[in-house]
Amino acid sequence: METEVFLAYETARGNVFRLLSECYLMPSQQMLGNIHELAEMLKSVCPEVVPHIGQLKSVSRHGWDIEKINVDYARLFVGPYTLLAPPYGSVYLEGQRRVMGDTTLDVMQGYMEAGLSVSEDFRDAPDHISAELEFMYYLVHKEIEAVAGGAYMIAADYLEKQKCFLENHLGVWISRFSTRVMENAHTEFYRALGTVTAQFVRANQEEMLRISLRRIDELIS
């Protein structure tokens, strides 16, 4: 794999994390419009999820019902009553629906060690699904910067950080979270989004990161 092709692949992979992160924020027309960009990125790095993206695009062709999507977002992730799909890693990793537990602090430590802090504009817990997906985008972005600058050992370190974060945090709880989303969503948007998110994260764990690490090893040697 040529370096330029590899960088394009990693850029698409990182952008999928970024776009998925935005999909778990308060719905907006701009966010919904990003579905087409998300579909294009996924075609190049994770084609197995394209049929589910097709479901989202089908909904968009018939017009988004932003009010229904906002209501579903609140039901699933906000409340005010019992959350149907709590978007916090600690709920799944620590049980008893606990938020801001030890695993949350561990996530925050991981952010700081990677040179990243949670923005003051982000008013939720550090292990919110959107924050963890955004962190993966950040790690991929830093890896790409390192490769472009010829700092292949640094790039390898950022890839190892991605692998570690998936193995200890996001990859551990994403399936249970996505199942809750798929089982409880009233809109096709969130049902398909839950499926796409889980499959993409699993693909990174099972294959995509191995491809990236192998390419970095080739560059180092």
Features:
221 residues; mainly alpha; TorD-like
Which CATH-level-2 architecture?
Orthogonal Bundle
Count the E strands: 0
Distance between the termini: 14 Å
Report low-confidence residues grouped into runs of 5 or more: none
Instruction: Please tell me how large the radius of gyration is.
Output: 17 Å
Could you state the CATH homologous superfamily? Answer: TorD-like
- Approximate shape: globular
Total domain modules: 1
Structural class, from secondary structure content? mainly alpha
Strand content: under 5%
CATH fold title: TorD-like
Query: Averaging pLDDT over every residue, what do you get?
Result: 88
- The level of helicity is over 70%
The helix/strand order is HHHHHHHHHH
Largest sheet: none
CATH class assignment? Mainly Alpha
- What is the count of DSSP helices, taking H or I runs of 4+ residues? 10
Can you describe what's shown?
With 221 residues, this protein is mainly alpha-helical. The chain has one domain: TorD-like (Orthogonal Bundle). It has helices at residues 3-23, 29-33, 35-45, 50-61, 66-78, 89-94, 102-113, 129-148, 152-184, 188-220. The longest helix has 33 residues, at 152-184. The mean pLDDT is 88.
